[in-house]
Amino acid sequence: MSLKEKIDILKLPEHIAIIMDGNGRWAKQKGKSRIFGHHHGVTAVRETTEAAAELGVKFLTLYAFSTENWNRPKYEVDSLMKLLVKTINNETKTLNKNNIRLLAIGDLKSLPGNCYEELNDAMRKTAANTRMSLVLALSYSSKWEILDAVKRIVKDGIKTDQIDQELFSSYLTTTGIPDPELLIRTSGEYRISNFLLWQIAYSELYFTQKLWPDFRKEDLYEAIFNYQNRERRFGKTSEQIKQK
Ligand code: IPE
Ligand code: IPE
Ligand code: MG
Q1: Cβ < 6 Å from ligand 1: which residues?
Q2: Residue 99 lies in a domain
Q3: Is the residue at 146 inside a domain?
Q4: Which of 41, 97, 224, 233 lies 20 to 30 angstroms, CA to CA, from 90?
Q5: What is the CATH number of the domain that holds 157?
Q6: Residue nearest to atom 13 of ligand 1 (CA)
Q7: Ligand 3 centre and the CA of 123: distance in Å?
Q8: pTM: predicted TM-score of the whole model, two decimal places
Q9: Residue pLDDT, tens place only, 16-60
Q10: What is the residue with the minimal CA distance to atom 14 of ligand 2?
């Protein structure tokens, strides 16, 4: 039985989020520049998106560029932005063919103009697609997102007794997107790096040594299979969960 066949389609996570890490180290191992690693990361994005959509996952969020990543050398930042524009441009057709909607979260206005336009254009062109939403986290950080929400709540004059978890969630850039049940990070780093702090309050975390450019469909299956063999208790006891 293949790993894919072992996955219980009825118990799929509705939303999987991935911290795509390790492009630079992957390239370094091959004696190449970090940019080479980012280019090969696109193959992993394609494979993972396809695998998730084929299985029936409804939301796939990929952490592509963090607020902190603006602090990288200018050459790397410029190359990443160029790669982003090129990839979005190249892949929009495939997204439409596969009925996948493109969304983006983060401080999108801080992206270079052409990048912002390309992104908006692709989101518009894929807006009617219903099979899966591919969410790109760009110029995203959770602390930025939470502060931005607080500022807008105050600006809107919301009264304290109106503020509950639902209201607060609706002010986050992820509004309308369910919290991820599963969060994957590649490259053997065991940290969250300012990603979806509010939304992953009860997510299952999965870490793999694989560097992002090497991540393939089988790796996604493995993460989902691992997730499906866990008991999610949400504060209750194991006995309570089994009684259901
Ligand atoms: C992830 O790979 C891609 C981005 C953060 C843009 P890295 O570029 O962080 O690669 P490592 O972690 O240096 O290997
Ligand atoms: C996290 O990776 C951000 C993205 C994957 C886009 P980093 O490589 O920037 O994370 P740190 O700085 O090592 O924690
Ligand atoms: Mg990294």
Answers
A1: 20-25, 34, 65, 69, 80, 187, 212
A2: yes
A3: yes
A4: 224
A5: 3.40.1180.10
A6: 24
A7: 27
A8: 0.98
A9: 999 999 999 999 999 999 999 999 999 999 999 999 999 999 999
A10: 193
